[in-house]
């Protein structure tokens, strides 16, 4: 009964009364990964998406442990079937909370067909140019040594002074190295960008 009330508030259209995270926090305390509504096929798509958001958040708090094999039946369903959509979206959202390798370890091999592709990382730094290669090494070293934003700014300004019009090159190299260094998860990326006020 309590879960029905919480879910009815979470699924309220057009918007829930409180932030969905509020309901997720309450539900985390009330349920421990076993009960799942059997009505996904009859739910409004907005509600299914909210449920995906909550359930993936819930799973992130329990190390993505779930009896995935119980959902094998969704793999033979049409790609637009609500249950298959739900499972596919949950997997994708979990990968956003974590990273692909971590979630792939939790999934049976049969789920590989609905898991998102490995992300393609484009690291476009012209390391053919000696000065850029040195700048990349300096930035990577600064990250490893937990340099302050001021120290990194000084490295970039020094490169710009030496290269004349190298400000754009310095900035694009900084971002490329920052994003490449923090590519493992969204949290790594967010932490890196927050630290350097990007």
UniProtKB/TrEMBL annotation:
One of its GO terms (molecular function) is mRNA binding. InterPro entries: ARM-type_fold, CBP80, MIF4G-like_typ-1, MIF4G-like_typ-2. It comes from the Eukaryota. Residues 2-109, 126-197 form the MIF4G-like type domain. Pfam families: MIF4G_like, MIF4G_like_2. One of its GO terms (cellular component) is nuclear cap binding complex. GO terms for biological process: mRNA export from nucleus; nuclear-transcribed mRNA catabolic process, nonsense-mediated decay. This is Nuclear cap-binding protein subunit 1.
